Model the fold of this input.
Amino acid sequence: MMYELLAHVYDALVKDDEATQEWVSLIKKHIKGKELLELACGSGEITIALAQEGYQVTASDLSADMIAEARKKSGSELVEWSVMDMCELHMEKQFDGILCLCDSFNYILKETQVRALFQGAYAHLKPQGVFLVDMHSLDRLAEFEEEYNEAGQVKELDYQWTITSEEDRIYQNFAFYDAEGRITLEQHEQRVYAPDWILAELEKTGFQVEVYTDFTKPGICEGEKQFYICKKGGGVQ
Done:
């Protein structure tokens, strides 16, 4: 199961307070209401930061281990947490904003699942609500043609972390070594989609879409990530 061990060391590996604040600022800019649903929330860093800003946040992740880690944090009591597949949304309420951040989208490997996510997000937004999703750009595939390799120690575990790409996939491989020499391995597979296809599918779903690259650059251009700001119509303009 993905994130079974990684959940316990995730923040130590990737936590970035500056990036969290960038996310909060972006969400404040594009989402006007206060009721949010965060999909694939991971360890809850952005989730809790939003809750502390006064947002009413419902947060979900497919990994029960990640949700367990999120619940341990200060401020977690402000959030409603659940274990849920973001491609199977069946909730009783609608939200002002739905979030899928930090390239979590790229864990979706099938086009049918992408469409299910888009349709589910649309159905669970209030009129004029916004679905905000980011994903790897095609440039990331070229970047990882040459293997990225990182090694170090985290929470008394030695680790090695490699990232490679092949065709439309990015593979992240983690090896953790404990003091007794036992090895735990995890592989994470992500799919990178053509931005023109993503844009077309979002518009077919009914969204009005703005695209940015790397937070601030308008349109689809060179960079690490594309950000899709997807607005549902209806209601009072």
